[in-house]
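=== Structure Prediction Worksheet ===
Name of assembly: unnamed complex
Input type: mixed (protein and possibly other molecules)
Chain count: two
Listed entries:
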Amino acid sequence: MSKKQADITDEALLGQKQKHHAIIRNLMPLFGLIGIVVIFSILTGGKIIDPNNISLMLSQVYVLMISSMGVFMIMTVGGLDFSQGSILGLTSIVFCWVSQSNIVLGVLAAVAAGAAMGAFNGFFHVKFKIASFIVTICTMYFFRGLCKYITTNGPVPASLNVIALNETWFKVLLTLVVLAIGFFFIHFTRLGYDLRAIGAGETAARFSGSRPDLVKFSVYMAAGAITGFASFINVIKVGSITGTAGTQLETQILISLVLGGMPISGGAKARFSNIIIGTLTYCVLEKSLPMVFPISATQQLVKGIIFLAVVALTIDRESLRVIK
Amino acid sequence: MSEIILRSEKVNKHFGITHAVKDVSLEFESGEIHGLIGENGSGKSTFCSMLCGIYPVSSGKFFLEGKELKVRTQVDANHQGVSIVVQEMGTLPGLSVAENIFLGEEERFMHGPVKDSAAMNREAQALLDKYGFKFIRAESMIENYSFEVRKLVEIVKATYFGPKVVVIDETTTALSQAGREALFRVMDAIKKQGNLVIFISHDLDEVLEHTDRISVLRDGELMGTVKSGSVSVDELKLMMVGRELDKHYYRTDYGEPISDEVVLEVKNLSVPGEIDNISFSLHKGEILGFGGLSECGMHEVGKAIFGGSFDRKGTVTLRDGLDGSSEGIAINSIPKAIKHGVAYASKDRDNESVVLADSILDNICLPSLDDLANHGLLNNGTLRRFAQKYAELMSVKMRDIDQYVSDLSGGNKQKVVLARWLGKDSDILVLDSPTRGIDVKVKADIYNLMSELKKKGKSIIMISEELLELLGMSDRILIMKDGKINGEFLRSPELDEKDLIAKMI
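=== Predicted Assembly ===
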């Protein structure tokens, strides 16, 4: 009898232990963000938490955070997207054109154009069963090519009324609205459950009533549309669009999500907080490094090392071990 | 008395704080087939894994022919004369059959840095022919073959070099009748050479028939060793679970008429290469059994009814009541099947029934998400209560509903599968191999649940390779052969396995 009791306590103990580990794992990225803010505050003598610098830092985060939300959904179902930067460039151009007549129409046009580009990605991925990173690397070149072609004769300017919207509160508001909508869909509709289940095991999800092909296609389209919306804020910030607008956005998104604790293989361990913590961590690092290492020649090098160190310290290895 | 070939002395295994094997001291004689039985998690596979160098021992020793046996890896164990056919997939994809057979023995075929593939293939083919597996080609890639054929390759791999001890771990469930017979021939040959076979299986009749002695483990402890001729299946079960099993292991009722009410009608169902023009109907409150050899197509029937087959032809129609002329609802996709109360538990539990890398909560709620939503909105609290309720109803052994299904044992995974369909309140349950690889206790739970569902007027299609299960549980049995229905039997106490087998082959 006593043996049986001992077994039960053992099991309960093990369960508690696992649970505590899981909680700590989920908090690691947050500790990472706090740690980085503290370290760089000390290294820069408090300069990075200066209000001016914070608003500068935030001005970077809007586009990244919004676009990351789309890629978050893509990564949750187990995909990747390298075409986001090119989509941002192209949708920014669309917005600039249409904004000349009407800004609201411009936003709608950019969202529609983004959705079309995302649908293009999704179509080739789902219909032709090509791995998502291959499809999106191809479309990254393709969309970028279009961007460069359109801007051959010079940058595409936006309507001057757009630049007048460059107010921090406005951009914060837009970002919060988009995040709230995303949060709502992921937590209060079946979308979130479908995304996690498909990412964790597509066949089993199909046999549980999810529609993997439809969901994947929709998610690519949604990610394109979301980045289309982000192009509005992008244009507010920069005023006119050159052929290189948005380059590197895709890598910034990916590294942000990983910094935020997003499992690379997607699945049930993806958390909405990954988006927010990840993009904030990225922007703090991005802005603080030049203050500490002023020589631009070594910045990339230092950046690479720091990113690797942060990821190595905070990443959840358990989720990498999950066999799919 | 014959001599002791293998002996274990107070062998222990700890996984973290789990004590999987406790002080097991056992003696094995040369020239015997020794059965090792116990429920899931009783430590039989762990014990043998330590013997074969898959896990290191925590404490204790093994002695082979009087000398202490110390193995670090499986290849090392092979060299010392100990081999194993593992429960899971033991062959490596990406290699040929011959390369799998001679894994770890490549040295023999090396001329300097160059491998003599031709010689390796020749030798492997000779072995395959000798075992009577002429249809397996040594030079083919292993993934060209089915799970069953790969198991046969594993048997060759584990036994060709004349090891002194061979462990066969739960292999027969993956094999058809012909495969099993081939395996038993191999086991007998090993025995005749004066060597030892340790045979692990959940099928107690099979164990009784083919072993000389049987050792029983429970919760990692040795309960005793008995002579196979001197015990019955019930006595073995008693040793395994430590209590009298419910007498009603299968249903005991006979002669109850099946309702006339047709709930599901299948017409001219075909899936290329799998099933060929099958028609049948399922009645309200009926348990309809499907039997046959593992490749006869019956597993695909379940998938096809559920709308999960690719390239399906024919119709699956839900009938509402007696009126056969009513239109009915055509089931042609999984979401539609689920929506209209058709449930499916696949034979391939880990890939098709549960999302392994996801929580019990998500797994139970997934098919019912649309029902749980209020104007399309889901409330986390509602979902948690729902999952908790049905996990408890099925008494799933778990930490909490946030635990991942991948942490659970086979029996508990199956309970999660059943919990989700109970939650969905499905009227038609298609259960493919519902008790495959599951211990007696959970098996009895599943049979009881099936009887209860039947009483409530739910209809069940049970696809099974276990003939006794079909005979014991079904109101009607359809036997399939080569993708077609080849025989139909009504429930009767006189019906026995031979009647079914006659239609299978």
